[in-house]
Design a protein that fits this description.
The structure is a single chain. The protein is 35% helix and 24% strand. By secondary structure, it is α/β, with parallel strands linked by helices. It folds into 2 domains: 156 residues, Rossmann fold (3-Layer(aba) Sandwich), CATH 3.40.50.300; 60 residues, no CATH class. The chain has a 6-stranded mixed beta sheet, with helices on both faces. Strands 2-1-4 form a 3-stranded antiparallel beta sheet, covered by helices on one side. α4 packs across α5. The radius of gyration is 19 Å and the shape is globular. The protein binds adenosine-5'-triphosphate. The site of adenosine-5'-triphosphate has 10 residues, from α2. Adenosine-5'-triphosphate binds next to α2. Keywords: ATP-binding, Nucleotide-binding, Transport. One of its GO terms (molecular function) is ATP binding.
Length: 237
């Protein structure tokens, strides 16, 4: 295979044999995972199964105890809370880490993309929860990451705002084409957004679903709920 072809299929991240322990407790156990550029992957699993531990390892925020993580560039991360700097204007927050030259213009373009183009000189304290998460998304995407890590970024939002954010993030990902790993507790959110849904159990990927194929959402929902231990059989009268 020629070098240019190899470059075309290069993934956003490739993880092999990843292991992470807290003391004696192995939380991630030889986990393998590849996410292609432009692919939207959701990660579900019972509370405490290691989803955030995996995301933090991919983000380079925590050390790992074994295996390899190959990512061509530093990933961008959006957390459940916006983590904006309260003393910086919105455009300064978004442009943090960019070269000074052209930073305001790039921040302006990113804020316009999330519907906040008129708020460059506003402050984080004046934003609603949904608006603050939109700024957090702008701050992540302005870096043009090849891998975007989303750690329950919509969990604290009300139901309608969450649906609006789903539409927005789907559109942004379609335009920027990063590989995405979304950690979520929300089966419906995973089905609405992801090309591929992974279920984490026992420190590794235990199941995989592709909800986008025709007729698949209902079957995927049922399979996911069963895998997550949700009992839907109602007691007989
Ligand atoms: N800094 C830490 N020190 C010790 N144990 C930790 C630490 N961080 C996480 N753990 C443990 O590792 C396990 C996995 O935690 P993690 O936060 O990754 O789970 P999760 O799947 O993201 O959970 P949730 O869905 O509840 O957010 C848990 O049992 C947790 O108690």
């Amino acid at each position: 295979m020629s070098a240019p072809l190899l470059a075309q299929v290069a993934p956003a991240v490739r993880v092999a044999g990843l292991t992470r322990a807290y003391g004696d407790r192995v939380v991630i156990d030889r986990l393998d995972l590849t996410i292609a550029r432009g692919e939207f992957v959701a990660l579900l699993g019972e509370s405490g199964c290691g989803k955030t531990t995996l995301l933090r390892a991919l983000a380079g925020l925590d050390p790992i105890d074994g295996g390899r993580i190959e990512a061509p560039r530093e990933p961008a991360v959006v957390f459940q809370e916006h983590r904006l700097l309260p003393w910086d204007s919105l455009w300064r927050n978004v442009s943090l880490g960019l070269p000074e030259m052209g930073a305001r213009e790039r921040a302006a373009a990113a804020l316009a993309e999330v519907g906040l183009g008129g708020r460059l000189d506003d402050w984080p304290r004046n934003l609603s929860g949904g608006q603050a998460q939109r700024v957090a998304l702008a701050r992540a995407l302005v870096q043009e990451p090849e891998l975007l890590l989303l750690d329950e970024p919509f969990a604290a939002l009300d139901a309608l705002t969450r649906i609006r954010m789903h539409v927005l993030v789907k559109d942004l990902v379609a335009r920027h084409r990063p590989g995405v790993l979304l950690v979520t507790h929300d089966v419906e959110e995973a089905i609405a957004l992801a090309d591929r849904i992974l279920v984490m159990r026992g420190g590794a990927i235990a199941a995989e679903h592709r909800p986008t194929e025709p007729g698949r959402p209902a079957a995927t929902r049922a399979a996911l709920l069963a895998e997550l231990g949700v009992e839907l059989d109602l007691p007989s009268a």
